[in-house]
Amino acid sequence: MCTGLPRTACPLRLFALCILLSHAAAYFGLTGREPLVFLPGTFANEPPNGKAHLKRCEQMTLTRRQKRLCRRETGLAETLRESVRLSLLECRYQFRNERWNCSMDGRGSLLKRGFKETAFLLAVSSAALSHALAKACSSGRMERCTCDDSPGLQHREAWQWGVCGDNLKYSTKFLKKFLGQKRVSKDLRAQIDAHNINVGIRAVKSGLKTTCKCHGVSGSCAVRTCWKQLSPFQDTGHLLKYRYDTAVRGHSVTNSATGETELASPRRHSNTGPRLRPTELVFLEESPSFCRPSRYSAGTAGRPCSKDTSCSSLCCGRGYNTALHLTTLSCHCQVRWCCHVECQTCLREEEVYTCKKH
């Protein structure tokens, strides 16, 4: 069940809403105030086989059908956890200088609304799952999928595929099956959620590149070994952050030709105009300021900021406090024979800025 979440979101069964992100604090023990570097890994070092694998599937808040898929796919539970780690890390990194910094505080309430931030969470969550699944296939962590061995390139005879490529084709197919997206709902919120999910998947797909290595005498490149490789997930995060910054407010219109309700953007001026672009994030309502504590965030009081770039925005006009902190660093380093570096420890005084409460 999708406890505490809007009915329109439940048929999508998106793990970000109904499964993992809404329960990430329980999985990782996060409070929303930890530095990113202290986020723990996925699972303990135990093999994802047999009873351990089945236990992991049962521990997750999945639908009955999703649990069946999880039990059948050895390695899926670990991949789901990895996708949560990816999405949390990337969300916090991309919003580290924003008023809403992707903190866990109040995320359940935020997911019930149609804000730009909700759109980003949906997109980055589906992107992380798509990315993690493709990587799990190429690394051999899932039994039912292997490398992406279909090059689809011209002059195929000149190419030799010898490295395991990221299997995004299987990932996308399995993701649709796992999320259960069969038909588009007439509900506007459900349409927007489904659209933003697909924006995340498309963002991952846009980062799929062909990587090659040359083989031959004196670098002649007589034979090339090529494989499909996904870009680092941070590249996907940067793209989705741009989509967030340029998100549009959606609304519904009736198609005069079919009589069906469709999702449209403000650029559409008639029932026959162009549809919403498949790459742009969509929101329903304007976001709160996130300046003060609310059910959507903890506010910005006490947040560290940069005096020259972010304090004026983050502190919401309340001003900021300045404090001097002593930090240690290595200095006066010298190379000793052989292959050894000796350094002294120096103290450096730094100014630290934090947003005021009042």
TrEMBL record:
Pfam family, one: wnt
Gene3D superfamilies cross-referenced by the UniProt entry: 3.30.2460.20
GO molecular function: cytokine activity; frizzled binding
GO terms under biological process: animal organ development; canonical Wnt signaling pathway; cell fate commitment; neuron differentiation
Residues making up the signal peptide according to the UniProt record: 1-26
Assigned GO CC terms: extracellular space
Entry's localization field: Secreted, Extracellular space, Extracellular matrix
Keyword terms, alphabetized: Developmental protein, Disulfide bond, Extracellular matrix, Glycoprotein, Lipoprotein, Secreted, Signal, Wnt signaling pathway
Chain residue ranges for the region called Disordered: 255-275
InterPro entries per the UniProt record, alphabetical: Wnt (IPR005817), Wnt_C (IPR043158), Wnt_CS (IPR018161)
PANTHER family cross-referenced by the UniProt entry: PROTEIN WNT-9B, WNT RELATED
Family, similarity comment: Belongs to the Wnt family.
Biological role stated in the UniProt entry: Ligand for members of the frizzled family of seven transmembrane receptors.
Entry protein name: Protein Wnt
Source taxonomy: Eukaryota, Metazoa, Chordata, Craniata, Vertebrata
